[in-house]
Write a structure and sequence with these properties.
There is one protein chain. With 666 residues, the chain is mainly α. It has helices at residues 3-9, 13-34, 38-51, 62-76, 91-105, 110-130, 134-144, 152-163, 170-174, 177-191, 198-205, 219-239, 242-255, 262-282, 284-290, 299-311, 317-328, 346-351, 356-376, 388-423, 443-452, 466-480, 500-515, 551-556, 559-562, 575-587, 618-631, 636-642, 650-662, and strands spanning 83-84, 603-604. Among the domains are: 13-205, Telomere repeat-binding factor, dimerisation domain (Serine Threonine Protein Phosphatase 5, Tetratricopeptide repeat); 617-663, Arc Repressor Mutant, subunit A (Orthogonal Bundle), CATH 1.10.10.60. 59% of the residues lie in helices and 1% in strands. Helix 23 (500-515) packs across helix 26. The structure holds a DNA duplex (12 and 12 nucleotides). Residues 222-234 have a biased composition (Basic and acidic residues).
DNA sequence: GTAGGGTTAAGA
DNA sequence: TCTTAACCCTAC
């Protein structure tokens, strides 16, 4: 067998399946974008974002796809001037950077490149003007706007509007932002046509009725489809004979270069089943929960519970039960928003004046509501265009809800961290990729996230001085060993009130564990070599889960995960504690993933610039190594833009390289 | 943009 | 309190 084939064989089931999932969600995200269902788009990018922190079989076009997603995410948020993907750039400026990378990686005709660039810049100027940000408009105009003769008139006009502080002008209304988004999508699609994903093909081949690669058309439809798909999935698998499955697998695995044999998979499956059975003995409900049929729980609780069940076999039975109960409770009257359901659609905005504020608000609302949604599992979207005032009221609502549901939200965060990492459809993207889910003990970052997600919680989380942070950290650490994960509420300090954020620590840890994404890009896959570092009392990952499987063990050996900075609480007691200990053990640090790390998510609040530390993931280190191989040491900027680093500067790369050299990792 | 020394945050 | 990875600052 060829080397690559054996490499493929060495891939874990998770890597392969994540790759399928990745392809699928990229496909869906593009479809959603095409249908101007930007809410769904952000949901999908959020899923992708979470997916890629898990080990993924990184095939050749993965980076291209990631770039496209990055680009569209920035475009999608381009009318929100208060968001940033990379400070201090506006989303559209970030889009320009991504565009450069795209153009570098793929052969884009210079003419088209220039056109797209110019379109972005013009739109950015218009967005600034519409939003009354004249200084910024001027800056953009000076810094980016082409001096080409044919654009001189337009430039002059913009200059004049800036001078006169005019935020409305016929020119500004000529094109809507929604049109612009679609133009950018056209560009991406011209550049790279995403093939139909393997999973869809599988589903089609299974003869499953109603399966089409048609894009989602609206979030509500999406919901229906999603839930239908979820329901149907069970029946499909039930209907498929082993023989036909083997045939389909044969054909498709050949096409997609998956050379894990069917028999091998079967064996693994059997093995897993055995292990599952063992687990089942310990937590029979978990197994039950994995079935599609649900007890007559409220609708609202169902999907979330399934999410929990499908993914989080780490949850013990008792947790499971508790989780379900808690999730269902809040899905009361205020769990949905009647005024919602109006995504920004192209048709809507075409005729409208389409001021940036108008465009902005829905997304914000979405982001805000998502958290609620998450706990109620009723997807809702923000009102199409609500004035700031209504935002405020909705904010209050949110806060009220928060106080009511803080407990359940805690659970939700827990749910997310273990199960919904990859799959929560209700999870907002951008900021949302969870203000609260991310590193919570970073005031600045939390603050920025919070701001981004609609300022909902910002008041509660005023930045605290380092000292208090430290003390709160200590407190947490003290409590850590006593607290079970879901009980984070008591962990409250002025700096860190009891909120989902407190849970995020463990959440973070999980993410850390999963952060070492092994992209085996093409043939150059390099499993990260383990540095000879003492790995403390690495409690074995005894709580193996269906999702994490033995993968995580490999990862735990990675440098990032192996950093001695762990507070491994002695694993004693119930599953809570065991799991927690495991997270702590493999996490390396709770800060492996920070806000900026999200591939598609924006952060905001450029003002609060505080030193926050973000550990390097194995994946990033791999990129760096590859970059150095490709471009040579010292070309940090080139390397940075050649890989989808997020939140990393060239200097960061240089520093990391220095550290890697020091640690003899290279 | 990069190199290299200094500083800081956070785990041991 | 020590150690160290990540980050900052400044000179080039």
């Amino acid at each position: 067998m060829s080397e690559s084939a054996s490499k493929v064989r060495s891939l874990s089931d998770e890597q392969i399946i994540n790759r399928w999932g990745f392809d699928y969600y990229v496909f869906k995200a593009l479809s959603a974008f095409r249908d101007a269902d930007y809410t769904a788009f952000t949901h999908f990018t959020s899923i992708i974002e979470n997916l890629v922190v898990r080990p993924v079989d990184g095939h050749s076009d993965m980076i291209v796809k990631l770039r496209c997603m990055q680009f569209l995410s920035r475009i999608n948020n381009g009318d929100k001037l208060d968001l940033t993907f990379e400070e201090p750039k506006t989303p559209l400026e970030s889009a320009l950077s991504v565009l450069e990378s795209i153009c570098r990686d793929m052969s884009v005709p210079p003419r088209e490149q220039e056109c797209v660039k110019q379109a972005i810049i013009e739109t950015l100027v218009m967005v600034c003007l519409r939003g009354g940000e004249f200084a910024r408009a001027e800056e953009v105009l000076l810094r980016h706007f082409s001096d080409a003769a044919d654009l001189a008139g337009k430039k002059k006009l913009f200059e004049s509007l800036i001078r006169r502080r005019r935020s409305s002008h016929s020119v500004l209304q000529l094109s809507s932002y929604a049109d612009f988004k679609q133009d950018m999508l056209d560009f991406i699609e011209r550049l790279y046509r995403v093939p139909e994903p393997f999973l869809l093909q599988m589903l089609k081949r299974s003869g499953h009725p109603g399966v089409s690669s048609e894009p989602v058309t609206s979030s509500s439809q999406d919901r229906q489809k999603t839930s239908a798909a979820a329901e149907d999935h069970g029946s499909v698998s039930a209907r498929l004979s082993l023989r036909s499955l083997r045939q389909v697998y044969g054909v498709l695995s050949e096409r997609y270069g998956v050379s894990v044999s069917f028999t091998q998979l079967q064996q693994e499956l059997e093995q897993e089943e055995e292990e599952q059975e063992q687990e089942e003995e310990e937590s029979p409900e978990l197994h039950l929960a994995l079935t599609e049929t649900q007890p007559e729980t409220a609708y609202a609780g169902m999907t979330i519970s399934r999410l929990v069940q499908e993914d989080d076999s780490q949850l013990s039975a008792e947790e499971e039960e508790e989780t379900q109960i808690r999730i269902v409770v809040p899905s009361g009257p205020d769990s949905d928003d009647p005024e919602v359901q109006t995504p920004v659609r192209r048709s809507d905005t075409q005729n409208s004046e389409c001021s940036s504020a108008q465009i902005c608000t829905p997304a914000r609302h979405t982001q805000k509501h998502n958290r609620i949604v998450l706990s109620s599992d009723v997807e809702s979207e923000g009102p199409a265009a609500s004035p700031p005032a209504s935002r405020c009221s909705s904010r209050h609502k949110q806060q009220q809800k928060k106080s009511h549901h803080s407990e359940s939200e805690c659970v939700m965060m827990e749910v997310r961290c273990s199960s919904a990492q990859v799959s929560s459809p209700a999870r907002p993207s951008s900021s949302s990729s969870s203000p609260a889910v991310r590193r919570s003990d970073r005031d600045t970052q939390r603050q920025s996230r919070i701001l981004l997600s609609g300022d909902v919680e910002s008041e509660d989380h005023a930045a605290s001085p380092p000292a208090s942070r430290r003390s709160s950290r200590h407190k947490q650490q003290q409590k850590k060993s006593d607290l079970s994960v879901g009980e984070s509420a008591p962990v409250s300090t002025p700096a860190r009130p009891s909120s989902p954020a407190s849970v995020t620590r463990s959440d973070r840890d999980t993410q850390n564990q999963s952060s070492e994404m092994e992209v085996e890009d093409g043939g150059s896959s390099v499993q990260h070599s383990t540095p000879a570092r003492p790995s403390a009392t690495d409690a074995p990952r005894q709580n193996r889960s269906v999702t994490v499987s033995s993968e995580s063990e490999d990862h735990s050996l990675s440098p990032a995960a192996q950093t001695p900075r762990r507070r491994s609480s002695p694993s004693s007691g119930g599953a809570h504690r065991r799991r927690r200990a495991r997270w702590q053990d493999v996490s390396g640090t709770h800060e492996n993933w920070s806000d900026e790390e999200s591939l598609f998510s924006a952060t905001s609040d450029r003002s609060s610039k505080k030193y926050s530390r973000k550990m390097w993931t194995v994946q990033e280190s791999e990129w760096l190594k590859e970059g150095v191989q490709r471009f040579g040491v010292g070309h940090w900027e080139k390397i940075r833009s050649a890989f989808p680093f997020t939140g990393r500067t060239a200097v960061n790369l240089k520093d990391r390289w220095r550290t890697m050299l020091k640690l003899r990792l290279v």
